[in-house]
Each structure stands twice: as structure tokens, then as C-alpha cells.
Amino acid sequence: MNLITCPNCHMRVLPKSDGTCPSCQAIIVQKKHGTHNIERIPANEIPKQRSDSQLPLNKTRPSYWPGLRFLIAGVVIELIGRAIVALIVASARGQAFGNYLATMNSAMKIQGAFDVVMVVLFFIGIILLARIFFARKKASKS
Ligand SMILES: [Zn+2]
């Protein structure tokens, strides 16, 4: 450190390490704020931007979800149908023979209707999955 003239007591002094004048204790040296401390753009911003620009590429590959949704709906419909039929069959127990047959007959009809709905949903789902499969193949080639 160099000798400086204290602005408070006007003595030629060697400032102490904490920047105060040894004669009058006034602070005469401001600790310099170097230009090194200027915040730089964090390095992790750059890869973040890169991954953002890659997102549209992934979006061009269609997901299997629309097709799978129909398959799941088919399974759910079938399970609901079986639950309803099971309830009807359970209610048929203990009935007179004629009523029992009529109830079982209607249960089978309901079961058949649910089966048709399930088959239609599966059919749509499989067609969609096949179309998505070929669309993905096309997207990955280009
Ligand atoms: Zn001084």
C-alpha cells in the first residue's frame, strides 16, 4: 500500500489493512469492487435453451395414447358389463324357474351388448395404433 494524504486529518499516512487512517481512525480507503464480480450469464442457461429447441422434434413423433385410450375404454366397458351381469345373475338366484330363465336370458343379452361395444372399441383402438405405428416410422425416417 502507498502512502496517501488522509482527507480527514490531512496527514501523510499508510492506511491500515481495514482501510482506516492510523492517525484519526477515519475510513480513508474504500475497498475496491473489481470488475471480476460482474455476474456472468449462468453456464447452465445454454444447455437449457438447447433442450428447448429439441422439444418440437420429439413432438413430431405421435404418441400411442389415442389408440391405447380405446383399448382401455374397451376393457373398462367389458368390466362394467360383467359387473352388471353378475348382479343380475345374483338376483336371479332363489327365483322361480321361469323367472330365473328370463333373468338369465336378459343377463346374456346385456353381456352380448357389452361384448359388441368392447369389440368395436378394440377394433378402433387397434386401427389407431396401427396408423400411429406407421406415422412414427415415417417421422423417425425423415
Ligand atoms: Zn486521518
3D structure, described in words:
- With 142 residues, the protein is mainly α.
- It has 2 domains: 1-30, no CATH class; 62-141.
- The chain is built from 3 helices and 2 strands.
- The protein has helices at 45-59, 65-92, 97-141, and strands spanning 4-5, 12-13.
- Strands 1-2 form a two-stranded antiparallel ribbon.
- The model is unreliable at 34-41 and 46-54 (pLDDT under 50).
- Bound molecules: zinc ion (ZN).
What's this model, at a glance?
The chain is mainly alpha-helical and 142 residues long. The protein has helices at residues 45-59, 65-92, 97-141, and strands at 4-5, 12-13.
Write the layout of secondary structure elements.
Elements: E1 4-5, E2 12-13, H1 45-59, H2 65-92, H3 97-141
Helix pairs in contact: 2-3
The structure holds zinc ion (ZN).
Features:
two-stranded antiparallel ribbon, single chain, binds zinc ion, 2 domains, 2 strands, 142 residues, mainly alpha, 3 helices, elongated
Widest beta sheet: strand line-up: 1-2
Number of helices: 3
Heteromolecules bound: zinc ion
- Estimate percent helicity: 55-70%
Unreliable parts: 34-41, 46-54
